[in-house]
């Protein structure tokens, strides 16, 4: 798996750490895990207009694992959905930017998420709505590997296959953090068995991610199993469950920024 981090990604990771340090809370490793994926989506794939976030023909993106909200906030800010200064108030009581994204507050957020297992069902509904209405757009969602333990994921997978939703892409952030509780094993084959086109990629290789996100089928939804490292970029966090939800101490903050620089 590639561990090369682009300057743009390192810069965004530094901002994530700074936001969590100021707030005193947040899910840094989860945000680090999906940052390359979210950046590639918004930089190379999605059709959107930050000046008109509700444009009918925009592509839809649902961040099912809402606790990784900081990755989405950073990218939305970079793409001018809201001013960068908003990031400084992350998780404050009067801020737009909560620990989980709120569609009623944050421009560019399609759905309020964080209750795991719900993002894919919403994405399926949105993709089906496109087919029924005739308004053409694609729908993308990122779920966590732990969410793949939820029955709603596989009920949605069956529904998407049944309706031949070839406008739907489900990206699994397979950082193996759920293995400690219940292994989901070969997700590529599992999605294939549910009638999906299924692809495995290095979730930190933006070229691989982009290529997979541009795959087209005639009658199948697309599953992209992204192999990732939770907390990539900060050694003390990488695959370390103690960091799942934690703010760094001043000493840890300095060390993490030093690594990222």
Fraction in helix: 25-40%
CATH architecture: 3-Layer(aba) Sandwich
Which percent range describes the beta-strand content?
A: 5-15%
Task: Name the helix and strand elements from N-terminus to C-terminus, one letter apiece.
Answer: HHEHHEHEHEHEH
Computed over alpha carbons, the radius of gyration is 17 Å
- In total, how many domains does the architecture comprise? 1
Structural class: alpha/beta
The CATH C-level name is: Alpha Beta
Strand order of the largest sheet: 1-2-3-5-4
Largest sheet: 5 strands, parallel
- Which stretches are poorly predicted, pLDDT < 50 over at least 5 residues? none
| Helical segment count | 8
The termini sit apart by: 21 Å
Overall mean confidence score, pLDDT: 96
Total E-strand runs: 5
* CATH domain topology: Rossmann fold
- Name given to the CATH homologous superfamily: Thiamin diphosphate (ThDP)-binding fold, Pyr/PP domains
What's the overall geometry? globular
Notes on the structure:
The protein is 38% helix and 11% strand. It has 261 residues and is an alpha/beta fold. It has a single domain (7-260), classed as 3-Layer(aba) Sandwich (Rossmann fold), CATH 3.40.50.970. 46% of the residues are buried.
Q: Which key features would you list for this structure?
A:
261 residues; alpha/beta; Rossmann fold; five-stranded parallel β-sheet; 38% helix; globular
What secondary-structure arrangement, pairings included, does this model have?
Elements: H1 7-23, H2 28-45, E1 60-63, H3 69-78, H4 119-133, E2 139-144, H5 151-162, E3 168-174, H6 187-193, E4 197-202, H7 206-213, E5 222-227, H8 250-260
Parallel strand pairs: 1-2, 2-3, 3-5, 4-5
Helix pairs in contact: 1-2, 1-3, 1-8, 2-3, 2-7, 4-5
């Amino acid at each position: 798996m590639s561990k090369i981090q682009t300057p743009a990604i390192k810069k965004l990771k530094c901002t994530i750490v700074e936001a969590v340090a100021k707030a005193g809370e947040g899910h840094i490793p989860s945000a680090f895990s999906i940052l390359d994926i979210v950046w590639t989506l918004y930089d190379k794939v999605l059709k959107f207009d930050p000046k008109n976030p509700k444009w009918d023909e925009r592509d839809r993106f649902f961040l099912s694992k809402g606790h990784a909200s900081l990755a989405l906030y950073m990218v939305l800010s970079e793409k001018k959905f809201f001013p960068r200064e908003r990031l400084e108030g992350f998780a404050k009581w009067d801020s737009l930017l909560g620990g989980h994204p709120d569609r009623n507050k944050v421009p560019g957020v399609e759905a309020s998420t964080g209750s795991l297992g719900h993002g894919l069902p919403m994405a399926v509904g949105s993709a089906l709505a496109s087919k029924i209405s005739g308004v053409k757009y694609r729908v993308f969602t990122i779920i966590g590997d732990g969410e793949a333990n939820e029955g709603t994921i596989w009920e949605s997978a069956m529904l998407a296959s049944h309706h031949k939703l070839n406008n739907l892409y489900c990206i699994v952030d397979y950082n193996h953090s759920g293995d400690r509780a219940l292994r989901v094993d070969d997700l590529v084959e599992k999605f294939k068995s549910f009638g999906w086109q299924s692809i495995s990629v290095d979730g930190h290789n933006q070229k691989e991610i982009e290529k997979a996100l541009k795959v087209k089928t005639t009658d199948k939804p697309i599953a992209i199993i992204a192999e990732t490292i939770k907390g990539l970029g900060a050694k003390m966090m990488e695959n370390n469950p103690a960091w799942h939800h934690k703010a760094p101490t001043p000493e840890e903050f300095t060390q993490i920024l030093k690594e990222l620089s």
